[in-house]
Write a structure and sequence with these properties.
133 residues
């Protein structure tokens, strides 16, 4: 199941898979198969890789996010779309050597503009703080 698309679209697909895993504990492969069976959705290879790796590194990524939240904030206070975007971007920043931090942050901000209620500044702030370390 390979479908060549732009890197942004692949990230968007990866985000949608990561977002789904917040609500659904099924393995990524089952989620992908279900999407194909019900809506004939085909996911890009990079999107599948991102989602699987984000899931594998979720505890590490969440600890990074939590350590950069303002006092009194927890992961549970972050909207689910924002959490999925943060996890995805942080994975790319920490583990994808060919993706500059600035690209991961900019793409995360674009996803936030599309999928959240004006949380792009929050996402940019958290990712920017992590990138500066």
């Amino acid at each position: 199941m390979e479908n060549k698309i732009s890197r942004f679209k692949a990230r968007e697909q990866g985000f949608l898979l990561v977002f789904e895993t917040i609500f659904n504990s099924d393995p990524i492969e089952d989620i992908i198969n279900g999407a194909f069976e019900s809506r004939e959705l085909v996911f890009d290879e990079y999107a599948v890789k991102l989602a699987g790796n984000v899931n594998s590194e979720k505890e590490y990524l969440d600890s990074l996010i939590e350590s950069h939240l303002k006092k009194g904030w927890t992961l549970r206070r972050i909207s689910k779309p924002s959490l999925a975007i943060l996890r995805l971007a942080l994975y790319e920043m920490k583990f994808e050597e060919n993706v500059p931090d600035s690209v991961a942050i900019n793409e995360a901000v674009e996803l936030a503009k599309k999928y959240t209620v004006d949380e792009s500044k929050f996402i940019n702030g958290v990712l920017g703080a992590i990138a500066r370390e």
